[in-house]
Every structure is written in structure tokens, then in C-alpha cells.
Design a protein that fits this description.
five-stranded antiparallel β-sheet; 16 strands; alpha+beta; Alpha-Beta Plaits; four-stranded antiparallel β-sheet; 7 helices
């Protein structure tokens, strides 16, 4: 069912930083836009032309970020006070490794970043990646789990309302569009998109879930999203099953849903539904 398509090139890559702040400072309730600003600043220092391209509106972005994860001393209505005795972590996720290399190049000449007016020392930098071809080779699964670690919402075509539940046909057809733009190996045509969406409706279901909604504030804007985990089941082991598993793995590098470049839709894939994700400190 997968056919040869555009050779965009690149390998999905995630870079996770562990940093220590020089002092305690105030952090807003939701920090995804801070992570995005830091990423664009880093890329701009290395290659301004690429930073401009990443910042342009109107096209699907090849990157996403996680919010900052940290331990706080106190919490107020406006945010948190970061505890500098504990590490602060964040992740930059790329659909092409060529963009990830710019971030690595930046840290070859220094290990300090600034958030607001506070300096943070980068203590470690971990890189992981998974090639599109490797994802394609996924074994069929009867069930798997997706954990949504930051607020997530899905757009509803023709409606001003957002979908606050990761319904299979909506979620995985969305991920297929991301795959089509950036995969270095295969491309799905419009007809296959329709066939796959119908297959999802008939063969993929939600067997169990634990979700809650959360309101995320982004300066003057705010958005409601869901967080938690969902177990998906599939009653067919054909090629579309493997496609679905591949797309679920891609979500770890692309984020899912709306505002994914601003820290929404951070997702982890677990091949065993009973697995759970560790809680991030905050």
C-alpha cells in the first residue's frame, strides 16, 4: 500500500537538554512558546536563513518542541518559581536531521542559554533518532498506547470547534499528512488517504483511556487541550496495521494536533498498552 514518493530526505530526531539555572526565576504556567523561541534563537545564531524559513507562516513546520519540565518551589495563579537546585529539561524535535544538526553545532562553541534574563548551564544533551524506513518496518500490533504529555487538540474541518479526544481516524490521518510531507522513503496519494481513513474507522478502536483537559496560557492567548493516555486496539494485521504503528512512532518526533510547534501535542508511543509514562517534574 505504500508507494514510492518524494525524496525529501532526513531522519526524525529529538534532542533533549538537561540544564541548571543560575538562580530561581518566575516561569509562566505553560512554557511551550518559550521553548519555541529558544529553538528559533539558537538556529538564527547558526543560520539566519534557516531560522527565517522555520518561522514562516503558511506551511507545515519540520520541527516541534516540548514545554520546559522542571521542579518548582512555589506556584501562583500566574506561574511557578523554578528551583535551580534541580534540572530543567526540554526537547527539540525535528522531522529532518539536517535541522537538528544546527542545534548541535550551536552547542559546539558553548553550553549556556538564556531564558528571559537568566542564564542556564547545559549539563547534558541527548540525541535519539529513528529513520522513516525503520518505522515502516514496524511489526503489526494488536494494541499500543499513546501518552499525551502536554495539552493536545485536533482541528475539526469546517468547524470553529476543536476536537478534545484523540479519535483514531482523525489522529492518524493527520499524522499521515505529516509523513507525506517529510518522509524520505514513501508517499501516500489522496486515494490511499481515503482508503486508510475508512480502514481506521473499521479496524481501530479505543479500548481504554485516562484523559483530562487543561487550559494552557500563551501570553495573551489561551487554548484548551487534553492530556493523559489512550490504549488503541486493532483487529487486523494487514499492511495498514503496520502503517498505523509507524505513524504512532512518528508522533514522538512531530507532536500531534494544533500548535505542535508551540509545545502542544507532545506524545510518547508504547508498544505495550500496560506501560505507563513517568511523570515529568514541575
Amino acid at each position: 500500500m505504500m508507494t514510492k514518493g518524494r525524496m525529501v530526505g532526513g531522519i526524525p530526531t529529538e534532542i533533549v537538554f538537561e540544564m541548571y539555572a543560575e538562580k530561581e526565576f518566575s516561569i509562566p504556567l505553560f512554557t511551550g512558546y518559550i521553548s519555541r523561541g529558544l529553538l528559533l534563537h539558537i538556529v538564527r545564531r547558526v543560520n539566519p536563513a534557516v531560522a527565517q524559513r522555520l518561522h514562516e507562516l503558511g506551511e507545515m513546520k519540520p520541527y516541534s518542541v516540548t514545554p520546559l519540565w522542571f521542579k518548582s518551589k512555589t506556584r501562583s495563579e500566574k506561574g511557578y518559581i523554578l528551583d535551580p537546585a534541580y534540572p530543567c529539561r526540554l526537547g527539540f524535535r525535528f522531522l529532518r536531521d539536517e535541522d537538528a544538526r544546527l542545534v548541535v553545532d550551536y552547542f559546539s562553541s558553548g553550553t549556556t542559554v538564556n531564558i528571559f534574563d537568566v542564564s542556564l548551564q547545559v549539563a547534558s544533551l541527548a540525541v535519539r533518532s529513528k529513520d522513516y524506513v525503520e518505522m515502516e518496518g514496524a511489526e503489526p500490533l494488536e494494541a499500543f498506547r499513546l501518552v499525551f504529555r502536554s495539552p493536545t487538540y485536533l482541528s475539526a474541518m469546517g468547524s470553529r470547534y476543536r476536537c478534545l479526544f484523540p479519535e483514531p481516524a482523525r489522529l492518524f490521518s493527520n499524522l499521515m499528512r505529516v509523513w507525506d510531507v517529510y518522509s524520505s522513503s514513501r508517499h501516500f496519494g489522496r486515494e490511499e488517504h481515503e482508503v486508510y481513513k475508512e480502514w481506521l474507522t473499521r479496524h481501530v478502536g479505543v479500548s481504554e483511556y485516562s484523559l483530562k483537559t487543561m487550559l494552557a496560557y500563551m501570553r495573551e492567548r489561551k487554548a484548551l487541550g487534553f492530556m493523559g493516555w489512550v490504549n488503541y486496539e486493532m483487529d487486523s494485521e494487514d499492511e495498514w496495521n503496520r502503517v498505523t504503528v509507524a505513524l504512532a512512532q512518528l508522533a514522538e518526533y512531530s507532536n500531534v494536533g494544533g500548535n505542535r510547534t508551540g509545545g502542544f501535542g507532545v506524545t510518547r508511543f508504547f508498544a505495550k498498552p500496560e506501560e505507563t509514562a513517568e511523570e515529568e517534574p514541575q
